[in-house]
Every structure is written in C-alpha cells, then in structure tokens.
Specification:
globular; alpha/beta; Rossmann fold; seven-stranded parallel beta sheet; binds nicotinamide-adenine-dinucleotide
C-alpha cells in the first residue's frame, strides 16, 4: 500500500541541488513521491538523489539549465520514461543579483535574471503542462516567487521584476488550466537561510550588519528555515490543497504585513 501525503505522485523539482529545492525534493520523497531532481550543478544534485535513494525513496537526477527549451524537452521525456507520468512541477531554480543600481544596471544582468527566474518558469509550464495533462488526473504546479514579487527592493529591480512576473504568470496559468484540474500556485518566501541568502550577505559591504538589518525586517525576528518552505511545497503538491489554485502563499515571518 502507498503511504505518504504525496504517495503515487511523480514530482519534478528544478534547482534541486541546493537550498529550498533540495529540501523540497527530500520532503516530497519522504512523503511518497517519485522525484526527478534537476539542476545545473550535477555533482550536488546527483549526491542528493543518492541520499534519497539510500533512504529508501524514489529519485532520479538530470542536469538541466532551465533557460534551455532543449533541456526541458529532454527532462520531461526522461521523466515520463523513468516514472511513467508527471503530476507535480516545482519551478524553483532561481538566481539573485543585488546591489544593482538602475542608473548603471547592465542589460546583461537584467536579461540573465529574467532568463532564469521568469523564462525558466514559462518554459517549465510550456513543456511540463502537456505531460501533466496527458496523465489525465490533473496536477499541481508550484512556482517559487518571493516577497520581492509583491513589494519592491532598492538594488534588486531585476529580481523583483522577475518575481512579480512569476506572480501573474501563475495566475494566468491557473485560469487556463483550471478546466484540466491542473492547479498552479505561487509561494512567496521571506529571507530563508540558504546558500542564496548567504551569498547576498557575503556580497554586502558589512555582512553581519546586513544580516541583522534583514532579520529586523521580519517581525518574527529571524530568517526562515528551508523546511518552512518545503512543508508548503508538500502541501501544495498534495491533495490537501485540492481547492487552491491561482493562490499566493506568503511565508515571510510577517515581512509584508507591515
Ligand atoms: N532563500 C530565500 O530567502 C528566498 C526567498 C524568496 C524566494 N526564493 C526563491 O527560491 C528559489 C530557491 O532559492 P534558494 O535560496 O534555495 O537558492 P540557492 O541558490 O540555494 O539554490 C538555487 C539552485 O538553482 C540552481 N540554478 C540556478 N540557475 C539555474 C539554471 N539556469 N538552471 C537550473 N538550475 C539553476 C542553482 O544551481 C542552485 O542549485 C529561487 O527561485 C529563489 O529566488 C528564495
């Protein structure tokens, strides 16, 4: 008998080698899903897939650049060949560039951010949608936006624009795919302790001060933990959220409540 909150489902998680993607892949596997982990970072991604397999879960790693349509076509084909179907897509891969002033911002940095964070999500929908629909029993797409997809941030205009784009791309997809019972929702994390945030703080002039300043913007008085986002991913992937589509799940320690 299948046990677990997402037992019997096949989930594809992008950017699964690190941070929120890694924790989401672990938890989806622990709750019974067969998980395809994809990332540009092959060694770390394969390492996590091995960890899940050794723990008795179902996992398969594929190298994947989410900006490449050819990569998406290969990833979807291999997923269906390996596990027979696709039910859940977690569009998680993303990059953050901060400290970029619009007076001097390069077009290259703008395009790179939009390519990964927004084109990547579009391509995920475009290539996975038909495969999920072919399964005939609906599905769930979970797009990682950010609090910075709901409010602006000086120095992170491209990041904020990309994540704001994800918010409305999510709602449009939810409306198109509601008749297919493919639900599409976005998650909006506050600052979570992952390598991405560590890098942002590392690049700041005074990392410790910057960390305290960021913590101070969260009324709960701390950064979030990857588990606190991964639990929401499992909820949205599972049938527990069966009446939820086009929704924006804000998990930010109160950041955007003020
Ligand atoms: N950590 C936070 O505070 C936070 C807050 C809000 C939103 N988010 C979003 O959550 C997602 C995950 O963030 P994280 O903190 O775990 O970041 P992370 O940097 O720890 O992990 C991101 C992963 O994405 C992969 N990646 C980057 N570009 C890629 C590409 N072109 N193709 C495939 N994989 C690629 C990286 O190799 C890495 O493994 C991102 O979309 C991020 O914007 C994070």
């Amino acid at each position: 008998m299948l046990t677990g909150r997402v037992a019997g489902k096949v989930a594809l998680v992008t950017g699964a080698a690190s941070g929120l993607g890694a924790e989401s892949a672990r938890r989806l596997a622990r709750e019974g899903a067969a998980v395809v982990l994809t990332d540009r970072a092959a060694e770390a991604g394969q390492g996590l897939a091995d960890e899940i397999l050794n723990a008795g879960g179902k996992a398969h790693f594929l190298t994947h650049d989410v900006t490449s349509p050819e990569d998406w076509a290969r990833v979807v084909e291999t997923t269906v060949q390996t596990f027979g179907r696709l039910d859940v897509l977690v569009n998680n891969a993303g990059i953050a560039m901060t400290g970029l002033d619009l007076m001097t911002h390069s077009l290259e940095a703008w395009r790179q951010t939009l390519a990964v964070n927004l084109d990547g999500v579009f391509l995920g929908l475009r290539y996975c949608g038909p495969a999920i629909a072919a399964g005939g029993r609906g599905g769930s797409v979970i797009n990682l936006s950010s609090i910075l997809g709901k409010v602006g941030s000086a120095g992170a205009a491209a990041y904020s624009a990309s994540k704001g784009g994800v918010l409305l791309l999510t709602k449009s997809a939810a409306l198109e795919w509601a008749p297919l019972n493919i639900r599409v929702n976005s998650i909006h994390p506050g600052y979570i302790d992952t390598p991405m945030v560590a890098q942002v703080l590392h690049n700041a002039e005074n990392g410790n001060e910057a960390r305290q300043m960021i913590i101070g913007r969260h009324p709960l008085g701390r950064l979030g933990e990857p588990r606190e986002i991964a639990d929401a991913v499992v909820f949205l992937a599972s049938d527990e959220s069966s009446f939820m589509t086009g929704g924006e799940l804000v998990i930010d320690g109160g950041y955007t409540a003020q």
